[in-house]
Amino acid sequence: MSADSKNPLIVQSDKTLLLDVHAGQAEAARSAIMPFAELEKSPEHIHTYRITPLSLWNAASAGLSAAHIVNTLETWTRYPIPQGVARGFSDTMERYGKIRLIAADGAANGAIREGELLLVSDDAAIIAEIAASKNLSKYLAKTEEGFSLRLVDRGSVKWELIKLGWPLKDEAPLRDGEPLAVRLRGVTLSGAAFTARDYQKEAVRAALGDGAPGSGYGVVALPCGAGKTIVGIQLMAELNTNTLILTANTAAAHQWIAELLDKTELTQDQIAEYTGDSKRTAPVTVATYQILTWRADKNADFPHFTLFRARAWGLIIYDEAHLLPAPVFRITAELQAVRRLGLTATLVREDHEEDAVFSLVGPKRYDMPWKDLEAKGWIAEALCVEIRAKLPEELKIPYAVASTREKHRIASENPRKETIVQQLVELHAEERILVIGQYVQQLERLARLLNAPGVTGKMPNVERERVYDAFKRGAVKIIVVSKVANFAIDLPDASMLIQVSGSFGSRQEEAQRLGRILRPKKRNSLFYTLVSRYTVEEEFAANRQKFLAEQGYKYSIQQWE
Q1: Which CATH number fits domain 377-560: 3.30.1360.40, 3.40.50.300, 3.30.460.10, 1.10.8.50?
Q2: Gap between the Cα atoms of 522 and 526, Å rounded
Q3: Which residues, in sequence order, are bridge partners of residue 9?
Q4: Three-class SS of residue 307?
Q5: Shortest CA distance to 384 belongs to which of 371, 395, 396, 373?
Q6: Rounded to two decimals, what is the model's pTM?
Q7: How far apart are CA 36 and CA 25, in angstroms?
Q8: pLDDT in tens, 83-116
Q9: Which of 63, 114, 216, 445 is deepest in the core (most CB within 10 A)?
Q10: Is 56 left (phi over 0), alpha (psi -120 to 50) or beta?
């Protein structure tokens, strides 16, 4: 096929690709471009993809050529491809593989110690550029063949090289972990039939790759409620090896353990929790980022780093991979030698360090537009409403003279929001409601007003889980929660969320909070955001909503007087 007015794809000169989702063969075109283009927006009618250096390097790592990409665009384009768009694909993609990482064992240079890696290139100019890099100098030592580096610095070197525009081809072999039979149940312990969905199976295949060097690791991006945990469990069943799972918090760790027991034949003795509450290891160990990054003071070692050597892990799963904090990035870098899977709803980070996730875990191997899953009934349809309320007269002058941070807090704790929450709860008495916010004092007041349990970071994990369980059973219809509920909290019956305050303009947080109510239901879910009118909260709210708007969600705005 050449340019055809019936084709679904429009190729633009800025390397964006517009996909008309209503055109014939739109699904086939989307599947064809996903290996080399990043999804940016997926509203109702036109989805936007962009071809970037990183997306081209990911394509090169998967064995695609520039000619293949051009042919794909020509196959599906509606109009002739603008001149110059394809020019440079080859140059960009050829950067991948100019630098290679290989096992240094047995190398000719006797200065290389057993277990170190070797960075090599046939291009003398590239070698000189690497040698001149101050950021790389702390990780690399010059050798006759190139540069040696410690296993622990594998991820950091990859990240620095990406910043220089040289994506590393990692040919150092992945090591196999200790075997562990992971068999999936056909019927869960709770009595429900269990089988993975088609897109979950596709995600596993994409993460596994073909077993060649450069495969066996990467990130899967799926919306909250789409069953990312099942993707992880499926991969465990494919690899049958000792597995370390890193999670956002203790409640999430407990949920992983419950899911593993429910959907696999693993026994309780084969699964261990490594958190602030318990520090046991087993063939499958579920730990938290917090326990790994704990240390007595900023100059002390990370005592729980020993977990990474506690067993011969063959797979590491990073749940909520976008949360990877800097210490975890550094201390888990040596697990670059292990097959690894990152699970996330969005790779958006407000520090713009998404490259850290790609460097540590691997490239994004699979994603699925939120609205596509909604259309197929795999996640709930959500109606998003922003309600704006004026500040009381007595707060207007204090607000006017406050700093930006103080302005945000005054606007966030607008007392009129408490009245709105009460009215919304009365209006939607049949819903299972989460009220979520940033500031503990505000949440404590709301809990008292609503006669509802309040869950904050101060509450012990055991008590939190008691509240969550009561909500699941229907004994409690409303919970007031802090940001501890942003991530990995499984409350499938929650159908309405009222957001009274948030972490400034965090798009990631907005997406995660909406995800709390996206489990499939018989009716639409409701997502209310309360904003103080004529304040910085309006600007922050617009930024928070940007990611979801790009996924096709619409926010209606209501004024409250």
Answers
A1: 3.40.50.300
A2: 13
A3: 19, 77
A4: helix
A5: 371
A6: 0.79
A7: 18
A8: 888 888 999 999 998 999 887 764 444 444 556 7
A9: 216
A10: alpha
